[in-house]
Amino acid sequence: MKQNRHISKIAVIGSGIMGSRIACHFANIGVDVLLLDIVPFDLTKEQLKDKTIRNSIVNDALKSTLKSKPSPIYSKEFVSKIKAIKAYKNELREFPHPRSIEALEVITKRWGSVAGFNYAEAFRLVRTLIK
């Protein structure tokens, strides 16, 4: 029996020329992308606490990719589909920690079942801006 599978999210390891463009192509077709890379080696303890500095390799690679001609991404709105979180050893933990891959999948499936979807995230609207 043939099984049809739907890929809704992927992780790309390495945000260099090839990895960042692969991430863009998957975002183009509507897949959520987790773009991963290493933490810069020469950071101080204080700099490691700053996510902007810690994630600079992925963020810089993604910015460079989006500026390239021709752009590998069809529309800038797809950029939000790419989540640049490169610090796997700093951010990810072993299950049952809430930041483990297994826990994140279970949590998103749970909220998805509440909303009638395969996966969903729970959030609360804190502020509304009205023009």
Describe the structure.
By secondary structure, the chain is an alpha/beta fold. 39% of the residues lie in helices and 10% in strands. It has 6 helices and 3 strands, in the order βαβαααβαα. The chain has helices spanning 17-28, 45-48, 51-54, 56-67, 88-91, 101-115, and strands at residues 9-13, 32-36, 82-84. It has a 3-stranded parallel β-sheet, covered by helices on one side. The longest helix has 15 residues, at 101-115.
How would the blueprint of this fold be written?
Blueprint: E1 9-13, H1 17-28, E2 32-36, H2 45-48, H3 51-54, H4 56-67, E3 82-84, H5 88-91, H6 101-115
Parallel strand pairs: 1-2, 2-3
Would you kindly provide a brief summary of this structure?
The protein is of the alpha/beta class and 131 residues long.
Low-confidence stretches: none
Distance between the termini: 54 Å
> Could you say which structural class the secondary elements and strand pairing correspond to?
alpha/beta
Shape: globular
Number of DSSP helices?
6
Helix-strand topology string: EHEHHHEHH
**Strand fraction:** 5-15%
Number of strands: 3
Q: Mind summarizing the main beta sheet?
A: 3 strands, parallel
Name the helicity range. 25-40%
On the 0 to 100 scale, the average pLDDT is 76
**In which order are the strands of the major sheet placed?**
1-2-3
